[in-house]
């Protein structure tokens, strides 16, 4: 799969001088900087897929996409898009967040699924990461219920993942899962 997203360091390692990169990234030029150290080799606005690839390039090789973007890439296309790209990175990495990216450090890396060259958190972890950051109870419930109905995960699997993970931010997803379990009886 070809992509128009590349790290500046990779271009330089391939022999493209820094001044040429700067010249091509000027306003009206054929390239654009979409994240620190990451370029889009096109003047067009980046697609969501290109933004995901840029976020992963920025965060490093051990980062994975989680949350709504990971779920959408795994088949739940009817979920509304997220305002920011949510990534998980190892606790040992300290890459800074940007306005477009929420980078969360974790000591429990999720299982990874690769779809179209994107490293994604497995559905159980992805939906819980999304639910932890969803402030609206109805949208949180819809997110969890849609994922369970799709067959990507089970209520029991979600409860087990919550029990194994950090307790921070887990009260609202726990309550939503209790409601969901009661409705499924």
Q: Would you give an account of this structure?
A:
It comes from Saccharothrix xinjiangensis. This is Transcriptional regulator with AbiEi antitoxin domain of type IV toxin-antitoxin system. The N and C termini lie far apart (45 Å). The radius of gyration is 18 Å and the shape is elongated. Helices cover 44% and strands 18% of the residues. The chain is built from eight helices and eight strands; from the N terminus they run βααββαβαββββαααα. It folds into two domains: 1-46, no CATH class; 47-184, no CATH class. The strands form three sheets. The chain has a three-stranded antiparallel β-sheet with strand order 1-3-2. The longest helix has 14 residues, at 137-150. A hairpin with a 2-residue loop joins strand 7 and strand 8. With 185 residues, it is an alpha+beta fold.
What key phrases describe this protein's structure?
185 residues; alpha+beta; 2 domains; three-stranded antiparallel beta sheet; 44% helix; elongated
> Please, what is the oligomeric state?
single chain
Number of helices: 8
Shape: elongated
Order of helices and strands: EHHEEHEHEEEEHHHH
Identify the strand order in the major beta sheet. Answer: 1-3-2
**Rg value:** 18 Å
Distance between the termini: 45 Å
Number of strands: 8
Domains (count): 2
Unreliable spans: none
List the helices and strands and how they pair.
Layout: E1 5-7, H1 8-13, H2 18-24, E2 32-35, E3 38-40, H3 48-59, E4 64-66, H4 67-73, E5 85-90, E6 101-106, E7 112-115, E8 118-121, H5 123-133, H6 137-150, H7 155-164, H8 171-184
Parallel strand pairs: 5-6
Antiparallel strand pairs: 1-3, 2-3, 4-5, 7-8
